[in-house]
Fold this protein.
Amino acid sequence: MKVPSLGVGIGWRAQIADLIAGMDALGFVEVVAESLTAAGPLPRPLARLKARGIRLIPHGLRLSLGGADRPDPRRISHLADVADQLAAPVVSEHVAFVRAAGMEAGHLLPVPRTRESLEVAVENVLAARRALPVSSGGGTAAV
């Protein structure tokens, strides 16, 4: 998998949207996927960045790729829908332990450093990658 060169980017937050809008040399803006509603319109500042040709990259926080449970298909679907909405060349997600047995930690917890944990994380990443789209511009899913 070859991740396209994206240049210099910044994480989008509504509180600094005006500052980001004034930046000229942006290659991309990372957007927390869970902060967007895939079915609704983009917040205006993000829509303006997209119209300028700034690549918008959805970044997930809640798939729990490092957890023992398989990623929730609804969460993967949401990340995929957001990626479609943004016409994203890549998507990203933390490899972290977020949830187990239906309980949310509320944080990105470290993955145990064992061979078994690695094998589970690899299976979870591959399952997520199969379900995540990218723009037709030759991009690659990255988790």
